[in-house]
Amino acid sequence: MGPVRWQVVAVAAVGLALTLEVLPSVLRWLRAGRRRRRPRRQVLFFPSQVTCTEALLQAPGVAPSGSGCPCSLPHGESSLSQLLRALLAARASLELCLFAFSSPQLGRAVELLHQRGVRVRVITDCDYMALNGSQIGLLRKAGIQVRHDQDLGYMHHKFAVVDKKVLITGSLNWTTQAIQNNRENVLITEDEEYVRLFLEEFERIWEEFDPTKYSFFPQKRRH
Amino acid sequence: MGPVRWQVVAVAAVGLALTLEVLPSVLRWLRAGRRRRRPRRQVLFFPSQVTCTEALLQAPGVAPSGSGCPCSLPHGESSLSQLLRALLAARASLELCLFAFSSPQLGRAVELLHQRGVRVRVITDCDYMALNGSQIGLLRKAGIQVRHDQDLGYMHHKFAVVDKKVLITGSLNWTTQAIQNNRENVLITEDEEYVRLFLEEFERIWEEFDPTKYSFFPQKRRH
Q1: Which residues of chain A register pLDDT less than 50?
Q2: What values do phi and psi take at A27, rounded to 5?
Q3: Which candidate, B50, B161, B157, B82, places its Cα nearest to that of A158?
Q4: Global pTM exceeds 0.95
Q5: Which of A133, A142, A170, B65 satisfies CB 3.0 to 4.6 Å to B69 for a cystine?
Q6: Smallest CA–CA separation between A156 and chain B, in Å?
Q7: Catalytic pick among A75, A114, A127, A163
């Protein structure tokens, strides 16, 4: 080989080496770009406009009434309807960790998910379980597992995790009073780190609130 | 040129072209990686361990006692100390939108920031302004602007924005009861979209709660 030819071969080799070196990074970058665009990042502010949620909360098998609902409420989107949609997207699991839960619409959404086979688990505060209008009793009757604290401190979280992938958390207690009258915020995020940290908190509390550990069953504890 | 030489030149050209093509992407990817690592994403869970916060809350000019504080409390980190640190990082502005604010440590931190020249603005709920132990009166006396609702609904947010860059939000009311006894969460995020949405909410409410609009000054409203 002459001297020119060697130079060309060297450049070709360097070019190829560089290409092979960076291609995986580029592919990762392109994939990461797609991943980064997708994660949901949303805030719902309350009070929510009062809108009709009938079409969202139809039982399976019932023909959707859609915009044909004859009620006099507005039929557009609201913070409440968007919160309902985020919950109703669940296909496999729903963890709920709620200080107070009395909104009939949110209760109905959770019951529908349970009927569809979604694994629903609920943690709540003992002081708010049996309050007038609480949805907790209805959910238990429907067969949903509920655990609660027995501390003096409040179980004051207000979060939900949908399909272990979407975290819904904020200041909003799930009551009609809060939804319709209060200044409140609800973050919806698919950020993996936030989802993981809240799921870990859920599992910690779920374990700690295991009914076999309740101290008002002292006979059980002694065995 | 012989046939072998042409092939080598072709490979060299393709290799160089590919390298030049992907290099900017690779550089962007590397930069994006650095950017992505930086934004803070943290969750503080409560109840917080009770720790000594004296060293954090020293007035300017006082020699820091540091770990030399003689009190019997533990002197390590806790969820409360981390929340204090996040607030005390403010250099220019602090927006507070808080349902209830009675924690003396958090009140002290806000007062220190005000003394350091940080522009502090506070929005709170009227029902909780003058409650026993409320920090709101002390902050007003120190010269900090406070605005409040006059609705039946609650101003139930619990968020802070530090230097228009860091959002601190969650279920935690800023009370010693909640900090020491309740299950609570506080997200700390530098996500620009979340920060922007909460700042917009703050400005909306700040404007709406302008004292000249309070209806218990009916004479003023008529002019």
Answers
A1: 218-223
A2: -60, -40
A3: B157
A4: no
A5: B65
A6: 5
A7: A163
